[in-house]
Structures are given as C-alpha cells and as structure tokens.
Amino acid sequence: MNAKNEQTMYTLLRNLGNVQGIAAMTILSLNSFIESIRQLKCTKEETLPLYLELAGALRNSQPNIIPLMHLLEQFETEMQKNLTPDMDLEEIRQTTIKSLEKKIEQFRSNAARVTENGLNYIQDKDVIIVHSASSVVTNILVQAKKKLNRCFKVIILEDNPVRTRQTVRALREADIEHMVTPAHNLSHYIEGAKKMFVGALTITSDRKIVAPTGTAGTVSLCHVNGISVHLFANSLHYSHRDSSHQDIYKAQEETQSANMNFSMTTYSHDLVDLDLIDHIVTETGEIEKGSYPV
Amino acid sequence: MEGALIPIVVFLIVYAAITLELVNKAVSALLGVMVLLMLHVVSEHEAAALIDFETIMLLLGMMSIVAVLRKSGFFSIISVKIAALTKGSPVKILILFSIVTAVLSAFLDNVTTVLIIIPIIIELTRGMGLDPKIYVISQAVISNIGGTATLIGDPPNIIIGSKVGLTFNQFIVNLSIPVVISLGISMFYIWFTNREKFKPIDGNLAKLFSVQLLLEKIRIEFLDTRIDRKLLIKGLSCLIITILLFITQTITKMSPGVVAVLMAMVLFTISGVDVESMMEEVEWSTLLFFAGLFILVGVLEHKGVIEWIAENIFLKIGDNPYIMVLTVLWVSGIVSGFLDNIPFTITMIPIVRLMLEANPIPNNILWWALALGACFGGNLTMIGASANIVSVGMAKQAGVHISFLEFMKASAAITIITLIIASVFLTLYLWYSL
After folding, report:
1. Checking phi first, is residue A132 left (phi over 0); if not, alpha (psi -120 to 50) or beta?
2. Where does B303-340 have alpha helices with state H?
3. Rounded to an integer, what distance in angstroms lies between the CA atom of residue A229 and that of residue B45?
4. Distance between CA atoms of residues A278 and A274, nearest Å
5. How many whole angstroms separate alpha carbon B10 and alpha carbon B418?
6. Closest chain B CA to residue A165
7. What is the Cα–Cα distance from B141 to B416, expressed in whole angstroms?
8. First vs last Cα of chain B: how many Å apart?
9. Which of A2, A4, A8, A135 to mutate to test the interface with B (most CBs of B within 10 A)?
10. What is the pTM of this model?
11. Which among A170, A168, A159, A171 has a CA at the least distance from the CA of A218?
12. What digits encode the pLDDT tens for the residues B181-195?
C-alpha cells in the first residue's frame, strides 16, 4: 500500500471516528473490511498477503484505534492458524469473512455488557453532562429511560456539530429531557449537574485516556467541582503502550486572523489523566481505579 | 433601421459585459434597459410588453418546485444512493452519475443538477485518489446534452418553446433521439480518451476498503440534513403532475408557464413550507436577466435590426433547406460556445422566424436546429453554458482547478461530435419530411 492510499485511509478513519464515535467506527471498519474482501479480485496466492497488509495498515492508523487493533491482532493470529494450503480462493474468502464477523460479534457483545452495567449509574433526578457522547454512552442514556423509566436530564456539550445532532436526535426520540450548550459555557450549569459520562478511544498503560478534543477541559472542571466522572469503556480499549505512542494526529497549519498570520498546531484527540475519573465501568462491571493497568 | 444606433450600441455593450463577466448578468441587462428608457428609445409600458412572461412563469414555477424538493432532501437521497451503487468503480461512477445527471437535467434546470451532482462526485473521486477533473467536466457536458431533450431542460429550449409555442411533447419526440445518441457517444468518448483513469480498483484491497469508508462518510454528510418524507412525497407528486400536465398540454390547453406556477403554488399551499425561505431559493437574478434581455432584443426587433441581420446574413445563404438548417445549427453551436446561449437564442428567434417566412421548412426542423445548436454548442468552452461555469466554480472551491484550456480540450471534441450527430439527424429528418 502506498503512502498516499494509507494517508487517505487514515484521514477517513479519523473523520468518521470524530463523527461516529469509536465503537461505531470499529464496527464500520470491520464491516468495510468484509465488503472489500467480497469485492476483491485476485489470485489465491495474493489473498492472504493482501488481507494482512490491510490489517497491518489499520493497526497503524493515526490515532491508533485500540479496539480495532486488538481485534485485528486476534484476526491475524486466526488467519495464520486457520488458513491451510489446500483451501481454494472461495474457502479462504469465507473463512476470513467468518473470522471478521466473529470479531464484530465480540465487540458488540462487550459493548452491550458495558451498556447493561452502565444502567446502574443513572438514578432519578440525575443531571448528567455528556461530552462527545460515544454510542455506548448514548445507549446507556436511552436504555435507562426505555427499560428502567428513569427520569433524568442530560446536558449535551456541543462539540462536533454532526455528533451533537446525532445525540440530540437519540435523546429526543427516547423522550429524554436535555439541553445543548457549548463546552466553554459549562461553568454556568456546573452547580446543578451531578455526573459526567464519557467514553474513550483508548486507556493507555501510563493511566491516561485518549478522548475527543475538549474532553480534558470538561473532565477537569467536573473534577474540581466534585462532579463524579464515569468512564464507560470495554476492555478492548486498553492499550499496552503509553500515551506518547498512540499516534495522535498532529496538524500544523498557517492561520490568518485579522491582519496577523500565525502557525496553529492542533491535535486530533485529548489526553485525560485517569486519576480525574471516578468510576471506570467495563463489561465486567466497575473496576478499581488503582487496579489499572491490569 | 431609423433610430437603431443607440439600441445596437447598448446591446453590444451589454453582450460584451455578459460574455466577459464584467458585471452581474442581470445588472448588465437591466442597466442596458435603463439606458434605453432614459434616452426615451422605448417607454416603460412598451418595455414591459416586450417581456415574454410565459418564459418567466415557467422558470419561476420550476425553480419554486425544485426549491421545495431540495428542502425535502430528495436530491441528497439520489446522490447518496447513486454513490453507493457505483461501489467505487470509476467506470460506474462515470456511467451512473452521467445517467442521473442527464435525466435530472432533462426535467430540472442544468445549474440545479450540477449543484447537486458536482460536490458528491468530487468527494467520491478525490477520496478514492482519482483526479476529479474529468468527472467534473463530464457532468457539466452531460447536463447540457441531457437538458436538450425537453422543453424545460435548458434555458434556450424554454425560450424557444415559449416564444414559438412548441409543446413539451414536441421537444421530447423530436429531440430525444439525437440527445440519447449524443449521450451514449459522449460517454464512450470520455471513457475512451481517459481509459487509464477509469481502470477498475477491484484488485486493490486498500482502495476498496477506503471506498467503503468514503461511502459511509458521504452518507453521513449528505443525509445529515433530515429527510422530510411528507414534503418529499408532496414535492415529487407535484413534479410528476407538472410533467403530466406538460405532456397533456394539447388537451388541457394550459401553457407550460401556467402549469409550472400553478403547481408551484399548489405545492406551497399543501406543504406548509416557509414560503419566504423558499422564495430566497428562487434565482431572481436569472429571471431579471431574462426580462432585461427580452426588452433589449425586442427593441432591436422593433427598430428593424433583426430583420436586417436576417436579410443580410442568414437569407443570403439561399433557399436550400439543408443549407439553412445546417447553417442555423452550426452557427448556433459555435456562437453559443463563446457567448451566453440565452441572449443568443433570444436574438436568433426573430431571425429564424424571418427565415421561415421566406422559406418555410416543415416539422419545425429549423427550430430544432436552433435548439440543438444552442444547447450542444454551450459545451464548446467553459463560458458557453451556465452549468459549465457553476461546475468549474464549485470544483475550484473544493481545491480542484480546471483551466479554460483543460475544459475545452475535453469538451470541444464532444461538441463537434454532438453537432455532427445533430447534423446527420436533422439532414435525415429533413430528407424524410420533404
């Protein structure tokens, strides 16, 4: 794969991740992998190297999509083990697709269990702050209303416009009371809020979380004001590498403001200290903060 | 031609301003009209009487219906569905988008069509690592060819239909054959001359994967605005009824302009849309441009200038019907490539009328020659048709720069090919009719 194709792919992954959230992005990537395999025309000998080349490129995306990395590592191991020389092209294709479908199932199952566990953290009269609500966080809110009929209010901090619209649409359809405000206006609502819910791209080995931009400031403000911060992430989000090795995308571009030109540096994601998080909820339930990294 | 000097000078200045885009088109035309009014060449009431309100009503009605359809999300649905159907195959992108562009252009105006198609085709091709230029140029060219097939597809047709009294059915019946043949051959030409760029990607797993992501991104971006199903159904129903009323024009005796405005008002009433915001979507500057041009050309006609041009240029070619038809076709084709085809058509209508008075030609073939020439000729250069200018402008906004020569390199050959197809068609048609 040439560098241009690789960069195009990473840009798309980053853009979609910002809009869809990391859980949806992981499933979308695996589904896209399956669909690409269905459309691929190549010889039997080319098949496995091409599959592994794409899996390898995906594992190096900027930033690293840790759940996808873990699932692709498992996939690569399975491929090396399950594919035998006597298989024909169609058998290789079907075995590969089955393996990827199993990964999707595994991720969905983990995410569903996190959602189930997350329901315990919503009570009546709660006022919950969400920033860049992940699909897991949105599901927890929706299920709490639908299944448990909890009465609570959500403060949506506006960040990515598309993502904000998606969150608003989900809450509106579930008839959940909510309001939208820019993240920088949160201080006006901080006294009424009780909890903050966040998702994460990655939980790193040096006890940080990689989260959408703006999350760090919001978490800090909540922490200072004694609002308990809940992180909902399944174990596939855990990385064995530290925060400096997550390939967070850094862009530097010339910006013009009035008659001034200056160079602006932006990062695609924030880093948040895990010590600012009060509750970490995974597919096995809440884990002790101090017990991480496991 | 007594007192013709002032209107001729004003007309030439306005024409130059429009062609060189020195001032906004509508402003140029109306400024010209104001000069004529100021110098008492024509009175306000005479000027108003020169406006062809049938054309203005047809444009206003169709623009209003399109505005409601756009709000309903109809065009986003179509674009996203087509993008998904291509599965990232470069040839499929060319063929499917060209078919959609041609059909949309036939029933909506060309500028609206390219406004819908160009952003998505740039997003799709660039995301796949392809060069969007040839796709942008192809869609502009195809929209001009597709729009030639119907009365409402292209401004020259709207003007000819309204001023001459030709029906919607007459346009489809007489022009669809050369248009369909031209579309097929143009697509083949674009593919053949750029076949390296249309190579399939199904042997490249990484590109196939990126295409899947890209289609999802397009789906999110273009369908993010909520689809209003009720509005969509009402809008589409009204568009279908409008087209049915165009087709049955000989039975209902309702002119296309009346049908379009009637259905637009019905749609506004039943849909409950915010009419003020819908009115903002109507291209008022285009309507004013038309009104101004009708007045300028009308004054020239009254002063005998058009008759002089017809007698001294077009009637000099003799009375051979084949030569007359081919002259109108090729002169219209070449002139429309360099000048805006709207003022050109408005100028040519009285000339063609005089030619027909001198030497009648059956089955309105001279009018079809004008329509085919003015519409196909718009493809000759980047400035030949509004759809070309808008497409290139949108591409530039998206960071894809298409130069005048790059556009012409791809489009000029297609213009010549389509004009040859039209010549063969009109010659055979005339031979059959005589």
Report:
1. left
2. 305-309, 321-338
3. 75
4. 8
5. 34
6. B224
7. 12
8. 36
9. A8
10. 0.74
11. A159
12. 999 999 999 999 998
